[in-house]
Amino acid sequence: MTDGELNPAFDAKLLSRIEDAGLNASAPPQQRWLDGWLVRFSPGKAKRARCVNAVAAGRLAVEDRLAACAQVFNEAKLPLIVRITPFTLPAELNALLASLGLRRFDDTRVMALAELPAFDAPTTRAVTMRSIGLDAFAQRVGAFRGSPLAQRQAHAERLLNSPVPFFAFELRADGEPVACGQFALEGDLAGLYDVFTAESVRGRGLAGALCKHLLTQARSKGARYAYLQVEGDNHAARAVYHRLGFTDAYAYHYRTRDPSAA
User: Fold this and answer.
1) What is the pLDDT of residues 89-143, one digit of tens each?
2) Is residue 150 domain-resident?
3) Domain of 193?
4) CA neighbours within 13 Å on the CB side: how many for 179?
5) What is the three-class DSSP state of 186?
6) Which helix (H) or strand (E) holds 37?
7) Residue at 3 is within a domain
8) Does residue 45 share a domain with residue 97?
């Protein structure tokens, strides 16, 4: 999928709604508007919560806006990162950033499911699903990932202050928590987030079982469509999502001057 391309198999209005929903679901307390750009500077791990989203054309020259954004990130002691999507404005921003020396990294796919099916529940008693609180979830997924305490705390802060509700679950195998995931619900749109399986139990179908449970829960709350965001080279995860019916809807990536940002 090339830059700026929307999958014509989906209604473009739905994909625009998905982009908005993704921004809402990743909103941190640390954000501000700067001449039509949504500037986020959370200290957490998620790049969606610590980057510039150029969502409006604005009035200032792009170089002036970049300089103002750089000042915000410098004050937050974070590298300047700009997120580029098919909805980015001005449309030539990606090429301009490349010409200014901001390198591209983390190609990501937004995958969508146009109609939520009914999934079967896990058939083994050894696998159970349990709802958990958002703070506990941030600690659980942070422990799985090996994230430092500051990132776990920033994740919990973002979830607890989210403008849209999140519903978090952990999967237990033989009584031990080995996977977790959550979904954000906005109207009839459900977004899967932070799906993670412990390395020791991968390849046993647990990620698929967890995602089916998340989507079933979302469907019971009125969701008709689903979306998720996954790195383009995460082939194992993408295979799981394809088996669930998800299809690539569009792509996005980031640009930065800081080699440590990735």
Assistant:
1) 999 999 999 999 999 999 999 999 999 988 877 666 688 999 999 999 999 999 9
2) yes
3) 127-223
4) 27
5) strand
6) strand 37-40
7) no
8) yes
